[in-house]
Design a protein that fits this description.
Layout: H1 4-10, E1 12-17, H2 24-33, E2 40-45, H3 53-63, E3 67-71, H4 77-90, E4 95-99, H5 101-104, H6 107-114, E5 118-120, H7 125-136, E6 149-152, E7 158-160, H8 183-188, E8 207-210, E9 213-214, E10 231-232, H9 235-249, E11 253-256, H10 265-275, E12 281-286, H11 293-301, E13 304-312, H12 316-322, H13 328-340, E14 344-351, H14 358-370, E15 377-380, H15 388-395, H16 402-407, H17 420-430, E16 440-445, E17 452-457, E18 464-470, E19 476-478, E20 485-487, H18 490-498, H19 505-516, H20 520-532, H21 539-551, H22 555-568, H23 573-585, H24 589-602, H25 607-622, H26 668-677
Parallel strand pairs: 1-2, 1-3, 3-4, 4-5, 8-11, 11-12, 12-13, 13-14, 14-15
Antiparallel strand pairs: 5-6, 6-7, 9-10, 16-17, 17-18, 19-20
């Protein structure tokens, strides 16, 4: 028989959220637990592990909780296991209950690996409430009678109970526990760009996540849904919650975090009509086959700033393999119509389907390069446990050890028809293709430097836009007029204003003179200490160093330096041009051509980039390539016909310091271009 103290402890729950952002799933769990007046429920969000583990032990001491509930994703396995170990070290008798996708993807397998006591799979609210009742009631329901549960019996055998039937009316589930998770704090702490590009439509975002439905009616091979039944909330209930959120937290933006907002045109129009009086921004996910001008116009009028589409590929064969039930032509139409409606397009092209080939990857990336205005992200296929793609990868031996795969955070795995060299080289370069075109900066005020005031001309609508508080961590921005997205590069803006390159000019001139004269020892003595003193965020230095390494023939190191520069800033025309030369010399001329095109788009004055782009394009035509060969190595390309430019720290460090490189205007293609423009 349990003591009274133990019963009191078991009535006290601590819910832990990792990583630290507002936990929409756990907030429903805590709200449900709080419907039982016998239970005491505490909430804790933690950030980096293991740095934040002491916060867990401190909270356990404060609350005397006998039960800890945790939710998580498979990719966070290592950190979640450290949290479990932390709790066990503090008090082995504490009951640990795990839920979320990491459990639902493979309940029995994960139960053997994480070290928790109970696993909740599927829809968790009712399961957790019944389990909490079991902990504090002597003669109530037993664990084996609770649907949606995994645990060990007295003999140590893992028991998985029957699946829980999803709740048909999800409006019966209590609203998320706003107070328990301190939603007000999350909202007050939001800043311009704090959620990547989604929080840059206004200088002072106050955004919340809101669910209008659960699960998804589609069964894409790469997507995991712990609950198979798609259910939608009633619109009256949705707007009752919205009214409360506006009144209590003065929100100005709603991110509808549903996997799919709706496939019903009437429901979307109803939402538009009801949200309009609130005068708040919102965004949602739709399918491309529902996009039509009239619907998008109504959404735009109702202050919809972004529509997320599941794009994935521009190859119909790959889309069929993924079971997307859409076509490339529907994607193209939806993107164009959404753009024309002044709504930002959010979507990803993910490379890694089981039918992905060099040709299909090239087809997608060719389309992307021609349509940078949509700002579509490029990504690898993450193989989530529990998906059809994951199960296929296990059967084919592409994932050899399931435990090792999950423990390492689900690392990138080649599940395509490409070779590993083709696939990983393609991914590595695709990430450095610009996904946002740069804006023209009119004015910059860097006082204070942590919050930059910037005035730009939007590259999409041509309007002048002012931003009053751009943090250094924000590089991709949404136009306040048309909601198109572009690149801003705050690191570069601050660096150019705070670092005076005049003091470097003599060092650069001397080191370059040594290089030109073939005096490698003197060059290394002068230049390398100079460059090594620059921090990794000094993007111009990195670009310059990459160029020096390129001239020395050290292509892999040059490639690394340019990539470091691009991690901080995408708006470097000289770096794009010279990086393109590196790639062409390494046989990746498709990506090289893309960087020449980007350099020219960023700066029309970069004549070498235009000459290089035309040189490569003509060669491809002569070789009868129908697509730009991105996912392909070509060893016989005449890269000696390409031209290098000089990345300068400022106008005071000109190309005159590097006479041997002033050759781009001498190329026949460049001469023709100069004549045409003149």
């Amino acid at each position: 028989m349990d003591t009274i103290q133990n019963k009191l402890n078991k009535a006290c729950w601590l819910l832990i959220n990792y990583p630290m952002e507002f936990p929409i799933g756990l907030s429903y769990i805590s709200a449900t637990l709080k419907t039982d007046p016998r239970l005491s429920v505490h909430c804790l969000s933690v950030g980096s592990i293991p740095h934040h583990l002491p916060a867990i032990t401190q909270k356990l001491t404060e609350t005397m909780a006998g039960v800890v509930g945790i939710s998580g994703f498979s990719r966070n396995f290592s950190s979640l296991k450290q949290i479990v170990s932390c709790i066990r070290d503090y008090d082995p008798s504490i009951i640990i209950v795990f839920g979320g996708p990491i459990i639902s993807s493979d309940p029995v397998f994960i139960h053997n690996k994480l070290g928790h006591d109970y696993g909740v799979y599927g829809e968790g609210e009712e399961t957790v409430l019944e389990l909490a009742n079991y902990f504090i009631t002597d003669n109530g329901i037993q664990p084996e009678e609770i649907a949606g549960l995994v645990f060990r019996d007295a003999d140590g055998q893992i028991i998985k109970t029957s699946e829980r039937i999803p709740k048909n009316d999800i409006d019966d589930i209590p609203w998320p526990d706003w107070e328990g998770w301190d939603l007000g704090y999350f909202i007050d702490q939001q800043a311009f760009g704090s959620r990547w590009v989604f929080n840059t439509h206004t200088d002072h975002p106050r955004e919340i996540l809101l669910l209008l439905s659960r699960s998804c009616p589609y069964k894409c091979t790469f997507c995991f849904h712990s609950i198979k039944s798609f259910r939608m909330r009633k619109m009256d209930a949705v707007f009752e919650e919205i009214r409360a959120l506006v009144d209590r937290y003065q929100i100005n933006t709603i991110f509808l975090s549903d996997d799919l907002f709706s496939v019903n045109r009437k429901r979307i129009l109803d939402f538009c009509q009801r949200i309009t009086p609130y005068n708040i921004y919102w965004s949602a996910s739709l399918r491309v086959n529902i996009a039509e001008p009239e619907l998008l116009a109504e959404m735009s009028k109702a202050k919809c700033i972004m529509v997320g589409y599941g794009l994935e590929s521009m190859d119909d064969g790959v889309l069929r393999s993924m079971r997307k039930k859409i076509t490339a032509s529907q994607i193209e139409k939806a993107c164009q119509l959404t753009y024309e409606a002044n709504i930002s397009v959010q979507g990803n092209f993910i490379f890694g389907d089981s039918q992905e080939t060099v040709e299909t990857a090239n087809r997608t990336l060719n389309w992307h390069i021609k349509n940078l205005k949509y700002s579509i992200a490029l990504s690898y296929m993450m193989v989530f446990p529990g998906t059809e793609l994951y199960n296929t990868a296990l059967k084919q031996g592409k994932i050899v050890d399931a435990h090792d795969y999950i423990e390492k955070g689900c690392p990138t795995t080649n599940t395509t028809l490409m070779t590993d060299k083709e696939y990983f080289s393609f991914l590595n370069e695709a990430f450095f293709i610009a996904q946002f075109i740069p804006a023209h900066v009119i004015n910059v005020d860097i006082n204070p430097p942590s919050k930059i005031k910037v005035t730009v001309i939007c590259p999409h609508c041509g309007e002048i836009v002012f931003y009053s508080a751009v943090p250094l961590s924000c590089s991709n921005v949404m136009c306040k007029q048309c909601y198109g997205r572009f690149n801003l590069d705050p690191h570069k803006l601050v660096y150019r204003n705070f670092i005076s390159p005049d003091s470097h000019t003599n060092i650069l001139a001397e080191s370059i003179r040594f290089l030109n004269e073939g005096r490698a020892e003197e060059f290394n003595r002068v230049f390398l200490p100079f460059i090594n003193e620059a921090s990794e965020s000094d993007i111009d230095m990195l670009s310059l160093f990459g160029t020096v390494l390129l001239l020395q023939g050290n292509l892999e190191e040059a490639k690394n330096k340019f990539q470091q520069a691009f991690m901080y800033a995408q708006g470097l025309p000289d770096a794009h041009n010279n990086y393109g030369v590196v790639l062409c010399k390494l046989g990746q001329i498709g990506f090289g051509l893309a960087h020449f095109q980007m350099a020219w788009a960023i700066s029309p004055e970069c004549w070498a980039a235009q000459a290089n782009a035309q040189f490569v394009s003509r060669w491809l035509v002569e070789q009868s390539f129908e697509l730009i060969p991105f996912a392909q190595f070509i060893s016989d390309f005449p890269s000696e016909g390409l031209h290098i430019t000089v990345p300068s720290l400022s106008s005071t460090v000109s190309t005159a310091l590097w006479p041997p490189l002033r050759t781009s205007s001498e190329h026949p293609l460049a001469r023709d271009l100069l004549k045409e423009i003149a």
